[in-house]
Amino acid sequence: MERRLVSAIACRNQGSRLYGKPLQNLDVDQGTRILDNIINCLQTIPCIDEIVLGISTGIENEVFKHLAEEKGLRYVVGDEHDVLSRLVECGKLAKATDIFRVTSESPFLYYEPVEYLWKKHVDEGLDATFLDEIIDGTGFEIMSQSAMEISHDKGDARHQSEHCSLYIRENKNDFKISKVICPDSLNRKDLRLTVDNPEDLAVCRILFREFKEDAPRFSIQAMVDYLDSHPSLKDLIAPFTEIGYSTMNR
Hints:
By secondary structure, the protein is α/β, with parallel strands linked by helices. 39% of the residues lie in helices and 18% in strands. It has a single domain (5-246), classed as Spore Coat Polysaccharide Biosynthesis Protein SpsA, Chain A. The chain has helices at residues 34-42, 62-71, 83-93, 114-123, 145-154, 157-160, 166-170, 198-210, 220-228, 231-246; strands at 5-11, 25-27, 32-33, 48-56, 74-78, 98-101, 128-132, 141-144, 177-181.
């Protein structure tokens, strides 16, 4: 059976620290939003067959339907808290065998190993491929559609939340899993490239502006080097790194 990889992106506007994170502008002048850059980057990766948005219910999330239509993407609408069900439905809609998961508030994907890891995932008949121990916001997960459906059917509310791979990780003997460790230079617990707070957004906007010519495929290593040479930017995001990594890979 030929495998079909679909990127399912869970979208919602709710957020206690920063409202509407996926729709925040990275480039204010050009109107390039976080979700725009994510989608644009994913569309450059040959092994990703389709992108589907899993949109939360609620009038405040209607904007994501318009965004999907604007970009020619399909979408599903589902429960705000049951994120896993939305991703499963995205897969069903697109007849996916596997889901490529990134989060809607993380604008800069470590895209370089995607093709290789997808081939490895297929060749080894894996249920899940996890890119772990990497800067928060730049990693990804590949999970089979069947493994995600099992996770939803057998898991509880914890597993159905935004921690969509938690059931697989907690029941690793029931699945064929590969955990991939990134290069040491990108295993930086003092940095983060995801947007949960206004300070995160400020840093990501500066990085987008600095490396704008590379959009939508940015070098994470170049961003790390830039942040290391601008300690004041690292100081902005430092207060949020500990809690971010405490819930990562769950």
